[in-house]
Amino acid sequence: MSLIALIPAGGVGARALDEQHSAPKQYRVIAAKSLLQHAVDVLLSDARVELVHIGVAADDPYIESESMQLPKAAIVHRSGGESRASTVLQTLDAIEQTQGLTNDDWVLVHDAARPGLSTQALSDLIDVCLTHQQGGILALPVPDTVKRAVASTTHDLQSRIEQTVPREGLWLAQTPQLFKAKELQQALQKALTDGAEITDEASAMEYLGYQPLLVRGHAENFKITWPQDFALMEQYLIRNEV
Ligand SMILES: Nc1ccn([C@@H]2O[C@H](COP(=O)(O)OP(=O)(O)OP(=O)(O)O)[C@@H](O)[C@H]2O)c(=O)n1
Ligand SMILES: C[C@](O)(CO)[C@H](O)COP(=O)(O)O
């Protein structure tokens, strides 16, 4: 059995761009390292993770820049796809072609855009999934009252409430998400071929009928999505260094 990590880093980070920054968000430096380097380092902090495979766009000009110093255990594949799911699948295919995949291998998929993952949450996810021999994800129960907007009102800041949605049983999906590598590969292949809407690894597994485990994550593991998210994440990362 081996536990490999996979970071999809083939996105353009369109929602995080601003006038001063044109590179994809995974290459923005905060707290002394790029988001991608933070994500690689936290995954390798768990001794059970042997290698971190990174999937970047075929024409990515940033990954080989001098400032991007990655550890030897990080392997870059130019396997980025049009969607996050296709980047994950194409990176799994590249791993299979270069080092092989067995039925016993597990893959831990983690967003480059979530550099705030704690070593404790990472360890919890691996412990729970390996103990139960079932795939699972980090996630957080929805803490707030949830509203559904009226469909016809599309402006982000001026929508109207149609109804309050019961929050019981609702969780916000984070990463890492841990699955048997070959099962995930098959699930992604099927879901993408069928045109199913797949926004994370768990949704591909759900599409095949699996019920992945939910393991409690933590708030600092939020995904950097908007320009204002960088400053908050930097505070967390600096605070956790000391
Ligand atoms: N075609 C894609 C799209 C996304 N990702 C990766 O998936 C992770 C989470 O996705 P998201 O935050 O949605 O990133 P982007 O798609 O880059 O963001 P945006 O939608 O704002 O452009 C990131 O590490 C991103 O690089 C990827 O590997 N390949
Ligand atoms: C995988 C993910 O991080 C779980 O929250 C998320 O689905 C990434 O994609 P999104 O397009 O930002 O929803």
Structure description:
- By secondary structure, the protein is α/β, with parallel strands linked by helices.
- The protein has one domain: Alpha-Beta Complex (Spore Coat Polysaccharide Biosynthesis Protein SpsA, Chain A), CATH 3.90.550.
- The protein contains six helices and eleven strands.
- The strands form three sheets. A seven-stranded mixed β-sheet has the order 5-4-1-6-10-7-11, with helices on both faces. The chain has a two-stranded antiparallel ribbon with strand order 2-3.
- Helix 2 crosses helix 4 and helix 4 packs across helix 5.
- It starts with a strand and ends with a helix.
- The mean pLDDT is 96.
- The structure holds cytidine-5'-triphosphate and ligand LQXTBERG.
- Cytidine-5'-triphosphate binds next to helix 2.
CATH topology call:
Spore Coat Polysaccharide Biosynthesis Protein SpsA, Chain A
End-to-end separation:
35 Å
Q: Hey, roughly how much beta strand do the residues contain?
A: 15-25%
The CATH superfamily appears as: Spore Coat Polysaccharide Biosynthesis Protein SpsA, Chain A
Number of strands: 11
Mean pLDDT: 96
Q: Give the low-pLDDT segments.
A: none
Largest sheet: 7 strands, mixed
Shape: globular
The strand order across the widest sheet is 5-4-1-6-10-7-11
CATH C-level class? Alpha Beta
Instruction: Describe the oligomeric state of these chains in a short phrase.
Output: single chain
